Amino acid sequence: MADRSAPSCHLRLEWVYGYRGHQCRNNLYYTAAKEIVYFVAGVGVVYSPREHRQKFYLGHQDDIISLALHPERVLVATGQVGKEPYICVWDSYTVQTVSVLKDVHTHGIACLAFDLDGQRLVSVGLDSKNTVCVWDWRKGKLLSMAPGHTDRIFDISWDLYQPNKLVSCGVKHIKFWSLCGNSLTPKRGVFGKTGDLQTILCLACARDEVTYSGALNGDIYVWKGINLVRTIQGAHAAGIFSMNACEEGFATGGRDGCVRLWDLNFKPITVIDLRETDQGYKGLSVRSVCWRGDHILVGTQDSEIFEIVVHERNKPFLIMQGHCEGELWALAVHPTKPLAMTGSDDRSVRIWSLIDHALIARCNMEEPIRCAAVSTDGIHLALGMKDGSFTVLRVRDMTEVVHIKDRKEAIHELKYSPDGNFLAVGSNDSSVDIYGVVQRYKKVGECIGSLSFITHMDWSSDSKYLQTNDGNGKRLFYRMPGGKEVTNKEELKGIQWASWTCVSGLEVNGIWPKYSDINDINSVDANFIGQVMVTADDYGIVKLFRYPCLRKGAKFKKYLGHSAHVTNVRWSHDHQWVVSIGGADHSVFQWKFVPDRKLKDTLHIAPQESLVDSNSDESDSDQSDVPELDSEIEQETQITYRRQVYKEDLPQLKEQCKEKRKSAASKRRERAPGNSIRLHFVHGYRGYDCRSNLFYTQTGEIVYHVAAVGVVYNRQQNTQRFYLGHDDDILCLAIHPLKDYVATGQVGRDSSIHIWDTETIKPLSVLKGYHQYGVCAVDFSADGKRLASVGIDDNHTIVLWDWKKGEKLSAVRGSKDKIFVVKINPYMPDKLITVGIKHMKFWRRAGGGLIGRKGCIGALGRTDTMMCAVYGWTEEMAFSGTSTGDVCIWRDVFLIKTVKAHDGPVFSMHALEKGFVTGGKDGVVALWDDTFERCLKTYAIKRAALAPGSKGLLLEDNPSIRAISLGHGHILVGTKNGEILEVDKSGPITLLVQGHMEGEVWGLATHPHLPICATVSDDKTLRIWDLSPSHCMLAVRKLKKGGRCCCFSPDGKALAVGLNDGSFLIVNADTLEDLVSFQHRKDVISEIRFSPGAGKYLAVASCDNFVDIYNVMSSKRVGICKGASSYITHMDWDIRGKLLQVNTGAKEQLFFEAPRGKKQTIPSLEVEKIGWASWTSVLGSCCEGIWPIIGEVTDVTASCLTSDSKVLATGDDFGFVKLFRYPAKGKFGKFKRYVAHSTHVTNVRWTYDDSLLVTVGGADTSLMLWTYEMEGHRDSRQCDSEESDLDSEEDGGYDSDVTRENEINYTIKALSTNIRPMFGIKPHLQQKEPTLDERQGVVRGSRPPVSRALPQPEKLQTNNVGKKKRPIEDLILELVFGYRGKDCRNNVHYLNDGADVIYHTASIGILYNVATGSQSFYQEHNDDILCLTVNQHPKFTNIVATGQETQQICQLQLLLFTCGMQ
Known about the structure:
Blueprint: E1 10-17, E2 29-30, E3 36-40, E4 43-48, E5 53-57, E6 64-69, E7 75-80, E8 87-91, E9 97-101, E10 109-114, E11 120-125, E12 132-136, E13 141-146, E14 153-158, E15 165-170, E16 173-180, E17 183-188, E18 200-205, E19 210-215, E20 220-224, E21 227-232, E22 240-246, E23 249-254, E24 258-262, E25 268-273, E26 286-292, E27 295-300, E28 305-309, E29 317-320, E30 328-333, E31 339-344, E32 348-353, E33 358-364, E34 369-374, E35 380-385, E36 389-394, E37 400-405, E38 411-416, E39 422-427, E40 432-436, E41 442-447, E42 454-459, E43 465-470, E44 475-479, E45 484-485, H1 489-493, E46 521-527, E47 532-537, E48 541-546, E49 557-560, E50 566-571, E51 577-582, E52 588-594, H2 599-602, H3 631-638, H4 650-656, H5 658-665, E53 676-683, E54 695-696, E55 702-706, E56 709-714, E57 719-723, E58 730-735, E59 741-757, E60 763-780, E61 786-791, E62 798-802, E63 807-812, E64 819-824, E65 831-836, E66 839-846, E67 849-854, E68 866-871, E69 877-882, E70 886-891, E71 894-900, E72 906-912, E73 915-920, E74 924-928, E75 935-940, ...
Antiparallel strand pairs: 1-52, 2-3, 3-4, 4-5, 6-7, 7-8, 8-9, 10-11, 11-12, 12-13, 14-15, 15-16, 16-17, 18-19, 19-20, 20-21, 22-23, 23-24, 24-25, 26-27, 27-28, 28-29, 30-31, 31-32, 32-33, 34-35, 35-36, 36-37, 38-39, 39-40, 40-41, 42-43, 43-44, 44-45, 46-47, 47-48, 48-49, 50-51, 51-52, 53-102, ...
């Protein structure tokens, strides 16, 4: 079998040629270590000019387009483009990520800037609103965001002299921002008459509110505050792209190719015209400048970086060159020297030295270049052009040999034959022309078999054959030099190829993913000696495969760096390097080839750390060389937690049923019943798909979960207390290390995690908003402050929380496959591990992101599926249990060794002070020493080991162990079968909790005169439960098939059980031994019932639409009830045992006479008069009210009536248990509703004396007991919601004012834009703070202390026509009549011990001085204020918050203002 594993050698990025100058600016700086930082493609580059060395930051996965340097000049922030772009803050010294900022911007991040002390970072997005965000970047936390402008923003900067002020500029605008609280408010710059309104490209802030900005026409605009005060005209001849401030002054660079230096007052110092220097050329355009001391860095549009020493400014030194804008496709390597040749759409051909890492020659051609080849002797260089011609140059001096144009379309590939005699030229005209090199490139042959453009070609070693690939993915062969097509397979067999660059062919089958567009791999090159090949694809990835690579979906190592498509890739002549080129990023990457290493070296080379795995061994295929998944794990990975309808959808669904509600609201409906139920005991534990979800509390109680209930179980008293805050299946549970707090995560559309106290059973925090579909793993940090959680969405998102604040700290996509466990490092809460399907990853927090490294396995094996993990005795040590029964021991990210621990998967692991305990599928608990050297003791979970007094029964020996916990001198064990056991250290086992195993539970019957019930489930067991305080399982029997129904005989001695294969049994109710069994049907038996009284008849209903009636005494079938059009769902006998009532899946209510089974028609009024022996029907007029409004989405699955016929209990598909008054006539009756089951409640039954209600929940496998409490006995209880599906307002009871206010619509507004921008306190109001005297009113011409009349205007202005009118400078609001009382409340308050009154009207907050009658105003709102409150805390006197309405209703703009400011 061909090897499909990844090669063991690898590539290391050694050099990147190029610099991103196009479409970017201000992206080139000196770091503190005098290195130069910039970016190209998706790589951050740190270049040391002294050592001529590059370091690379590889944390991005798409083009980087913005860069900012931290004021301390060590840290760098870079922003990328993409659908979900993020910002990385990284260290330029170690090139490791410090923080990731994500989940806010879309499209890309256009600009970045750090503030003066480097604590905050501002970013601008490329979305349609050009969103501006301010981050606390170390925490990865968004502090504020606001829409930036309707058009592009080119530059943003913090005002370095005023905190909380920013300036941004862009297309035809400049904005001055102030950050107050979490709100960013802009003021637009006023151009006035001083200068033309135009696009501003760059800016720099100076002291005293002065801002300098560079404009598109080459002028510099000088701003004071928000006003343009002067312009420096003609600073540059064209647009100024870059402006850099330093201690000495400012440097500017423009499109005219000049760099100008200015002093601190913007007086010119000097000008450097790069076009005039030796290295300069016409059209040079400066995109970035950085001035430090006597050095100036200049980045140009055409990917060059110059360094200028100020004293010798006419001799700039060229330190980096790359191709200019335009796609880069042509690449060839020299056959004997370490040289690479590239040609691009910028029409230049360039020769690079792979040893000196430098450009050594360049020549400009007439046409864009698409491909290149070097002759075998290294003398000629052939270039294929976009216009269909090709040119041959001498490599020595780049002079032309020939120029030939035989084709009209682009030449995409050309190659010299190994003997040097021929040149094959492949064009987009679908043909290959052969030219004789010696005959001065005369055309000697033509290959015309292809139907599509030629993409790749290879010569055979003897130069006699040529193979080609074309755009259709066809591979053809030709005889050379004539060009005749070869189709004879025999002739092709022995051909040796001189090179392999084709993408189709048997040898390269494995490079293709299983499902893939044929054209997304652009280039291949095989290294025959090293037996590896390298590929380049459209996703920016360079991959390393074994060669030959025969089977599809082979594994590989992948390397990121190029951002868009990698167009070509080649080995150097001696296979030391790989050269790859990027199409759109027009960069050239040089990778060092590192052959297979010996194992001892592996530990020194840490795997490359990045946000995307660059050293991935995964193939895109199912990894067939991995051992079979264990059946149990396989089953678990296939469970789906998606629901058709979630409980969160209820309000919307009800909304959609408005019409129904209106019609129902008019009718009077029954009250909810006065009696209630309370959850009393739950049988069951969720073990079949969960792990490590069982713990001791500090008080010795046991906490675990089943269905939607968190259970705290007291094993001494055999009682349970319940946390009922969840409304769907709980999938995981973790306990706080220091306190008795528990975190549980549930299934849901927007699933939540609840942290609750096991003592008080009260929630402390609920975390929502980040996990879709469900939460499958949670873990607390050792200090208990943080919580990690994993979702079951497609990416298995990992989130780190500060749970007390409810704040998300960091998040990252975890893995495509299921993750089982997350664990936070107990010594370093910023580190965590996750394990899952073929997944072991070590994460560390970086701001808002997490950075993952795969576990490094080395030669010890391959990544197995990991089921559990714990940290060990130091921060580096971690241990994981695999699906094959091994324990892996890790140091840092390296696998040191593996120890065989169990037969079959290791499902659970627990770390002790000295040692570990593990549990596996083999049903064994093992205790280990602290290095996993010795197994100290094993305990097998067997029936024989049960302690003598243990209640309950163990279903089977060696059940699969899913959870282990230690404490209070015992080992607590949870099994897949739903059992919780306590193992004493000396060996005996006590059974504490039992429940059904995986599979739906439907069958439920209560005993006619004892507190006992029976259940039967799809897990193929029949169980008898004691409902008295001992709460245990009395008997269990394994069945050959699962069952869906059961029933006790009226004397309680026999028990009938209906099975899923159409058979049924009658067993002895005590011993569960068979009395009799029958099979007349093929389909599931859905309901089974003994007739009342002597139990003479047994009615058996099946899913094939029949009810069979058997005589129990004679064991014969005596009647068949026909006529149902669907499967039977419910059955009840009347008291006489003569009549059967039947419900079907088609919602028919039918009646049959027993024992013959004749169908009867009975009017609904008569049905009510009949005495029924039991009522479990869900249809008929008596039950009309139990169907919810959203009856189409959810079924009422079961009902049961109390023996006094007063209360009907129902169970439905939403997991609700409800109580209705009986009869529930009229639609949508009122009820009391209880949540504890997760999805559907499949059956409900009252016990014989109505003291308990017993319910079973289909897939949640739980059996719940509820105590029935009479009306006067009521504490306020959880989930005693008295409600109906109709909301209260329809019952009237509203005052007319309330109704009117309820109907006010604040959204209909003619004005849809903010007329007045918002900002802080106006300056002219700030200075005029009233003095104490003014306040008291002791001022000239003052108002009387108390005046009931209107205040007199201070000067009555007569209309003096003769006088010259003064222009109106400003209107000042003096008095406002009115107060908003019509639809607001609690909006008048005293301030200053009653001296002032604060209230609001329109959009104004008013402070009214009682003594003087004067008003002062808060005028920052721009729409009606609707609410007002005053901060009562003594620390914040006079702080008021007001909220306004806006056209975006949801955005309540709260403005805090301090009264007495104005």
